[in-house]
Amino acid sequence: MSTARTIKTLVFGALLAGAGCFLGLVLRWAGEGYESLIPPSWDALYLGFWFLGALAAVAVTGGLVAVLLRPFWIAVIAFAISALAMFLTYEISAVSIIVAAIYFLVGLLYLAGVRGEIRIRTGFSVRHIRGNQAILLVVLTAIACTSLYFGYAAAIEREGFSMPEETIDWGVDIAEEVLDRIVPAGILSPEEKQVILDEIRAILEGEVESEIEPYEGYIPVGLAAIVFMILMPVTFFLSWIPLLILSLAFFILTRSGVVKKVTETVEVTRLSIE
Questions:
Q1: Could you tell me the sign of the dihedral formed by the alpha carbons of 156, 158, 161, 164, in that order?
Q2: Cis (ω within 30 of 0) for the bond into 164?
Q3: 227 near 37, Cβ under 8 Å?
Q4: Are 19 and 58 in contact (CB under 8 A)?
Q5: How many CA atoms within 13 Å lie on the side-chain side of 27?
Q6: Is the confidence at residue 271, as pLDDT, over 60?
Q7: CB–CB of 216/156 below 8 Å?
Q8: For range 131-159, the mean pLDDT
């Protein structure tokens, strides 16, 4: 391998490793994201944007590695280093080891799928990556939701389940809005209205928590499932963005001479009537 090719290989591998670091950092934030999801807040939206950015980074850099790095074992090493980088920036735990292993395995499937698609096509196009990229994005989204689950489950195990103060305030505010709509003005004095709201707050802080406590182990699962169902349509809707970035990247790399198009002659086996 020439020096120039070695340098280019290292650069593309480093980009994938950087994307792995970014993903690990976002997964760490996702593990603490339950605080911004109950009730939903602007912080949850920001976390969603960071997660989509991490998905795009892995999809783009993974696409570059899958298409450009030869032979296959070099691309495998690149994904292994990326998985290690994700593990180190996420957290040092058994959970992160499992997550990194899943990331590496889905990376191998992605590599094999992309190489297989390229091999059977007569011309290269990023559209050939779409199906394998979809699988990659689904698994990464599931990994993020799993991180959310483990983070919330660990918090409940440490501290027990309690409704966040913001959630209680949110419920009381909704009750106040309902009262204002269904009770004609002047029927309730401000003092009577406040007594009702205080009773609602006491119910939320006491009775509701007591009713939920036997099922607290299912709450992280439910939250992770809800987030997954919200993220998946958004992920699929925006999945064209990494493909567009890849198309632009390949165009620039080709025009600048960093990579070049190679035409190969292959033998094709057909069946015919003799």
A1: negative
A2: no
A3: yes
A4: yes
A5: 31
A6: no
A7: yes
A8: 87
Taking a C-beta distance cutoff of 8 angstroms, is the pair 201, 168 a contact? yes
Listing DSSP states for 245-268 in one string gives HHHHHHHHHHHTTSS---------
* Side-chain half-sphere CA neighbours of 144 within 13 A: 30
**One-letter identity of residue 106:** V
Instruction: At 125, give phi and psi (nearest 5°).
Output: -150, 145
Helix, strand, coil abundance in the chain, percent, nearest 5? 80, 0, 20
CA distances from 140 to 24, 38, 88, 146, 181 (A): 11, 23, 17, 10, 44
User: Across the chain, how many H-helices and E-strands are there?
Assistant: 11, 0
Given a cut of 70, whether residue 94 has pLDDT beyond it is yes
* Cα–Cα distance for residue pair 68/11, rounded to 1 Å: 12
How much is the pLDDT for 14? 95
How far, CA to CA in Å, does 194 sit from each of 61, 169, 189, 205, 209? 57, 13, 9, 16, 22
Judge contact between 129 and 165, C-beta under 8 A: no
What distances in angstroms separate CA 145 from CA 26, 57, 152, one per listed residue?
Answer: 11, 18, 11
Closest CA to 142 of 109, 106, 114, 113: 106
How many Å apart are CA 160 and CA 156, to the nearest integer? Answer: 4
CA dihedral 208, 144, 44, 218 (to 10 degrees): 0
Q: What is the value of pTM for the model shown? A: 0.80
167-to-149, 163, 171 alpha-carbon distances in Å: 19, 6, 6
